[in-house]
C-alpha cells in the first residue's frame, strides 16, 4: 500500500454516543483474521434497530437495506463502535443511517471508519403487522 492509498485515520464522532460497541472474535472471521461481512451486516442491523425501536415505542422489523458500503476491513480484536441516527420517518417506517468505526487494538491507537449503511424499519404490532408510528 502506498502512502497515497493509505487509509486516513480519524476519530470517533464527538458529541455522539455509540448505540453499540462490540469486539469481533475468531469465530466471526476467516482463517486470516478478516471479519465476515455478513457478521458486520448483522451488527449494523442490530445497531440501526435501536433508535428505530425507540422511535416506534416498540417492535420494528427490517424491511430494506437501502445502502451498505464496506470501506475498510475489520479484524479480530478491533473494537467496533456503531453510531445510528434516524434520517427519515414515514407513517409506519423509520430510515436509519449507521456508521461503524474500528479502534485498532495494535501498538498505536488507530481509528478508522469501516462501514456505513442506511436501513429502513417498519413499526409492527404484536401480530407482526405494520402499525403507525406514535406521534411525538
TrEMBL record:
EC annotation from Swiss-Prot or TrEMBL: 3.1.2.-
InterPro entries, per database record: Cytosol_ACT, HOTDOG_ACOT, HotDog_dom_sf, Thioestr_dom
Superkingdom of the organism of origin: Bacteria
Pfam families from the UniProt entry: 4HBT
Domain called HotDog ACOT-type: residue spans: 14-127
Keywords recorded for this protein, A-Z: Hydrolase
PROSITE patterns xref list: HOTDOG_ACOT
Membrane-traversing stretches: none
Single Gene Ontology MF annotation: long-chain fatty acyl-CoA hydrolase activity
Any one of the GO CC terms: cytosol
GO biological process, one term: fatty acid catabolic process
Similarity remark: Belongs to the acyl coenzyme A hydrolase family.
Protein name: Putative acyl-CoA thioester hydrolase
Organism: Achromobacter animicus
Organism placement in taxonomy: Bacteria, Pseudomonadati, Pseudomonadota, Betaproteobacteria, Burkholderiales
Amino acid at each position: 500500500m502506498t502512502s497515497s492509498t493509505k487509509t486516513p485515520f480519524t476519530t470517533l464522532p464527538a458529541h455522539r454516543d455509540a448505540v453499540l460497541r462490540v469486539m469481533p472474535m475468531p469465530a466471526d472471521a476467516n482463517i486470516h483474521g478478516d471479519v465476515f461481512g455478513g457478521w458486520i451486516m448483522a451488527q449494523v442491523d442490530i445497531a440501526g434497530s435501536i433508535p428505530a425501536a425507540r422511535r416506534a415505542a416498540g417492535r420494528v422489523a427490517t424491511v430494506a437495506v437501502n445502502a451498505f458500503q464496506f470501506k475498510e476491513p475489520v479484524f479480530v480484536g478491533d473494537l467496533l463502535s456503531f453510531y445510528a441516527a434516524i434520517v427519515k420517518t414515514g407513517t409506519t417506517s423509520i430510515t436509519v443511517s449507521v456508521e461503524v468505526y474500528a479502534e485498532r487494538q495494535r501498538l498505536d491507537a488507530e481509528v478508522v471508519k469501516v462501514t456505513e449503511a442506511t436501513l429502513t424499519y417498519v413499526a409492527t404490532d404484536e401480530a407482526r403487522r405494520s402499525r403507525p408510528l406514535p406521534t411525538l
